[in-house]
Amino acid sequence: MDSLSGPISHFAVDLYQQIRQSSTGENIFYSPLSIMSAFGMLYLGSRGNTAAQLQKALHFNKVAENPTGGATADPVENPENHHFQKLLTELTNPDAYELNVANRLYGRKEFPLPSGIHG
């Protein structure tokens, strides 16, 4: 979980700054973890420039960029994917509390999911 604490914290502050600009004088309530996990799912299916932009926004700096500007490795195999799975598993402690994070993406049949992503 420690490996995602930095990216989640940075993303949360960035997102708060953006929301704060349009919410003058109002209370703000949001879940950075839920939003980041939804964007993480988008990142898994992204390639090229889109993957590079999501990687930057989510502060996934461990993956170096390639010369063409996109993320190098297949996002499904990136460590962030495995860290998210582990984090969401660790956040559930049936003896003390129950935390459910529910995000879902719907794809079109014309666009098959990359290998490693279950539909």
UniProtKB/TrEMBL annotation:
UniProt domain Serpin: residue ranges: 9-113
GO CC, one annotated term: extracellular space
One Pfam family, short name: Serpin
Molecular functions per Gene Ontology: serine-type endopeptidase inhibitor activity
Family, per entry: Belongs to the serpin family. Ov-serpin subfamily.
PANTHER family (alphabetical): SERINE PROTEASE INHIBITOR, SERPIN (PTHR11461), SERPIN B4 (PTHR11461:SF186)
Protein name from the UniProt record: Serpin B3
